[in-house]
Amino acid sequence: MAINPKMTPAEYLAFEREQTNAKHEYLNGQVTAMGGASMAHSVIVGNVSASLHGQLRGRGCRVMSSDMRIHIPAAGLYTYPDIAVVCHVPMLQDDQFDTLLNPSVIIEVLSPSTEAYDRGEKFEHYRSIDSLQTYVLISQSRPHIEVYERQDNGAWMLTEISGLDSRIDIASIACVLDLSDVYELTDSAG
Which helix or strand (DSSP H or E) is residue 182 part of? Predict the structure, then answer.
């Protein structure tokens, strides 16, 4: 749901930092309330975060939840991906330390209401982040993961996998996701 009137980025950040229970996305002056997540969505995010945290421990990488806002200056977008990973010094927008500028990996769990946006316009915006090497889309309705990796020539290569007995590499951070772990304790786990 869009909130009116249009805001400047500074007005949005002031508004958003006052919120206690709600998150809002900002795109070129338009502020949109973000909806809640289903149980499957929340469990998958937790499972993936735990897996990546374990694999990245001691390597200087940070796995961040959807509470970390990402700013994409080229797109005029402020958003909250489900998971972001930074494997270098985090660059933050200001001294509030709540808006990341340089994620290495962004992961979105697809919801029926956001899937088209996550695959289309949002991915287009994400691709303008120079530091972003990998974009991962995870279905919440069936065991299926898509990994888009930025190539040296700037193109994005898709690898996708289905089935609970499968695993997929996230080469940019040298991690592996086992779909049986990703979907543990969800209806998709069987």
Answer: helix 179-182
